[in-house]
Design brief:
Layout (H helix, E strand, L loop, with lengths): L2 E7 L3 E8 L4 E9 L6 E6 L4 E6 L4 H15 L8 E8 L10 E2 L2 H9 L8 H14 L5 E5 L9 H4 L5 H6 L9 H15 L7 E7 L3 E7 L2 E5 L21 H10 L3 H10 L2 H6 L4 H9 L3 H25 L4 E5 H6 L1 H8 L11 H5 L6 E2 L8 E4 L4 H13 L1
Parallel strand pairs: 1-6, 6-8, 9-12, 12-14
Antiparallel strand pairs: 1-2, 2-3, 3-4, 4-5, 7-8, 9-10, 10-11, 13-14
Helix pairs in contact: 1-3, 10-11, 11-13
Bound molecules: adenosine monophosphate.
């Protein structure tokens, strides 16, 4: 058996999975939450059962110690299933990192420099790498970048129409995110359809807490909705997505809000939560169903933007074989899926409402048999994709 430990280190949480890469099976997974606070929790799903523990987690090193303790206490034993490598999720790889990469001092320093472009994510990813190196000193650590899959975007898609020289000097361009998920899901969708990836044109809608759309042409990302940062594009749980940039100048002049406050407004107090007070789509559904107009409007704005992107990406691709929903909302909300494609029959997108309503954890078709475009739900698995990519580097 060969195992790989996959690490997703956020600013206040550590997620991990130990994966047997020979059979692609999860041996254990866990989550350490509220890093940096006085009361944290560690949840570990071992071979037999799940375990919860309350504890203070001062920093990322303490979170990794809690993870190691959980493996020691509840199994599986890391000594008996020693990982051959550690795969780390890193959000921003800039223009340099287009492949999964063995972590070196240079790579760490580049990840630190790229924090400028992903201030919420890269510093926490790096802390995770450093803490993990402390625990697993003798095996390779591999960084898998969220931006890497989108390095195939053509210049027309990644260039902002601003002063070209300034943009070049300051590295202002679109990068795109959720690449690990878009890669995994687009491959799985082609497999589900039984067609070679190279000939399938698809739109993948990753709708989770963060959300992005991606046009995938023959396995290559040609357009995606997140930009230089993960703020652009679709309406998200707490992020605004697309907005006229002049709104910021206006609010600054009118209210005196500074850049930090405006950044906070668009990243943490906008999207579904800004419109309705709820950042979880389940709560938005419940509130709207009980007659809450703000929640209904939040839902309407969310699906309106989705439909807009589907139409735009269809045009970019020139033909569409599959429209694929994934992540928390995409996999679990028949309401969002139905409304996003309502009225797209003219584009050959026809939903089967009974198939759409059925719940399942497996990849499935939710379009009618005669729909020219296959509409699919394909559960994402970013951890498995990171394990696969890590394995490809160390083998
Ligand atoms: P993710 O970031 O992929 O884990 O997705 C998290 C989001 O999925 C949550 O914030 C919820 O809004 C959404 N979600 C999970 N289950 C459901 C559901 N049954 N219906 C609607 N949304 C859901």
């Amino acid at each position: 058996m060969s195992t790989i430990l996959v690490i997703n280190s956020g600013s206040s949480s550590l997620k991990y999975q130990l994966i047997d890469v020979e059979v692609e099976e999860v041996l254990a997974s866990g989550l350490v939450e509220r890093i940096g606070e006085t009361t944290g929790t560690a949840t570990h799903h071992g071979p037999a059962e799940s375990h919860d523990r309350d504890l203070a987690v001062a920093d990322h090193a303490a979170a990794f110690a809690a993870m190691r303790d959980a493996f020691d206490e509840h199994g599986p034993s890391l000594a008996e299933h020693p990982p051959i490598a550690i795969g780390h999720r890193v959000v921003h790889g800039g223009v340099r990192y287009i492949e999964p990469t063995i972590v070196t001092d240079v790579v760490k320093s580049d990840i630190a420099d790229l924090a400028e472009l992903a201030p919420l994510h890269n510093p926490a990813n790096l802390e995770g790498i450093i803490a993990a190196e402390g625990l697993f000193a003798d095996i390779p650590h591999v960084a898998v970048f969220d931006t890497a899959f989108h390095q195939t975007l053509p210049p027309a898609a990644f260039t902002y129409a601003i002063d070209a020289e300034l943009a070049e000097r300051q590295h202002v361009r679109r990068f795109g995110f959720h690449g690990t998920s878009h890669r995994f899901v687009s491959r799985a969708a082609a497999e589900f359809l039984g067609r070679p990836l190279g000939e399938v044109k698809q739109i993948v809608l990753h709708l989770g807490n963060g959300a992005s759309a991606c046009a995938v042409d023959g396995g290559r990302s040609i357009e995606t909705s997140m930009g230089m940062t993960p703020l652009e594009g679709l309406v998200m749980g707490t992020r605004s997505g697309d907005i006229d940039p002049a709104v910021l100048f206006y609010l600054h002049r009118k209210t005196g809000m500074d850049f930090g406050e405006l950044e906070d407004l668009l990243n943490r107090r906008s999207g579904l939560v800004g419109l309705s007070g709820h950042n979880d789509m389940r709560d938005v559904h419940d509130a709207a169903a009980s007659g809450d107009h703000a929640a209904q409007l939040a839902f309407d704005v969310y699906v309106h933007r989705l439909t807009y992107y589907i139409g735009g990406y269809f045009a970019q691709l020139g033909r569409l074989d599959a429209l694929v929903f994934t992540a928390g909302v995409g996999e679990n909300s028949p309401e969002v899926r139905a409304r996003a494609v309502e009225g797209l029959g003219g584009l050959g997108i026809r939903l089967d409402l009974a198939r759409n309503a059925a719940q399942s954890h497996l990849p499935r078709r939710i379009s009618t048999d005669d729909s020219p475009v296959a509409v699919l739900v394909v559960p994402t698995n970013e951890e498995l994709e990171i394990a696969r990519q890590t394995l490809s580097v160390v083998r």
